[in-house]
Recover the amino acids of this structure.
């Protein structure tokens, strides 16, 4: 798999990754990580967790991956890693690692795969997670509330009924049992760059979707 470290990209094997994971109790994988700040912050807040951000746009992870690579005293995060990949082509090296899988404010093909939903993508996400692990997704509900706009993007409705009738069975077939689907009231569970951007735009609504990896 391709790992972004500052301006450079490196090819890592599963053995390279396992060498880094040794000694950590938990693994978090954040798909569609964007600028990687959520992963950098999570790594700082949870010293027992190895945090992996995944995004096809490697150049957007340059700055944070450079910061993470410095000495700890200078803001380094030895427990943070940034992988260049899309959800449609996730590296085998990440299989079965995640205790927690997060997808924060996805857009484009990552968003449509979660809400249409697309079985191959759900199955690929499921392969990242250990049995009993959790999926936590934050979805920009306002995109769906503007029906003409959502329709132009080819997005379906995103309502409680749609989650029950369409998403729940499809997620279950992929090995995710949906636990919760609700609009977020109060503080966001994850502080991310895009989440902060949306919070500044008044009236934005966010849906929290959580699921447990089963089977
Ligand atoms: C609105 S940004 C959110 C970034 C970050 N999670 C945050 O909350 O700040 C959406 C991200 O989804 C990523 N993305 C879009 N399509 C993707 C795909 N097919 N696979 C993986 N990531 C994708 C984009 O590159 C972008 O970084």
């Amino acid at each position: 798999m391709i790992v972004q470290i500052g301006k450079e990209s490196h090819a890592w094997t599963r053995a390279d990754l396992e060498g880094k994971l040794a000694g950590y109790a938990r693994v978090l994988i954040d798909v569609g990580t964007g600028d990687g700040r959520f992963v950098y912050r999570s790594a700082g807040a949870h010293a027992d967790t190895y945090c992996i951000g995944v995004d096809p746009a490697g150049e957007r992870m340059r700055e944070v991956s450079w910061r993470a690579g410095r000495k700890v005293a200078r803001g380094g995060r030895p427990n943070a890693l940034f992988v260049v990949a899309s959800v449609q082509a996730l590296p085998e090296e990440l299989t079965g690692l995640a205790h927690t899988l997060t997808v924060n404010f996805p857009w484009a093909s990552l968003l449509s795969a979660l809400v249409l939903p697309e079985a191959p993508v759900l199955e690929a996400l499921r392969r990242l997670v250990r049995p009993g692990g959790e999926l936590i997704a934050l979805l920009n509900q306002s995109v769906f509330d503007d029906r003409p706009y959502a329709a132009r993007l080819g997005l379906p409705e995103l309502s409680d009924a749609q989650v029950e009738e369409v998403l729940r069975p499809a997620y279950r077939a992929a090995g995710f049992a949906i636990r919760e689907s609700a609009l977020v009231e109060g503080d966001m569970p994850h502080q991310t760059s895009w989440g902060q951007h949306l919070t500044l735009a008044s009236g934005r609504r966010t849906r929290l979707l959580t699921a447990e990896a089963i089977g």
Remarks:
- The CA atoms of residues 56 and 141 lie 23 Å apart.
- Strands lie at 2-5, 8-11, 26-31, 49-55, 80-84, 98-104, 129-140, 176-183, 206-213.
- The chain has nine helices and nine strands.
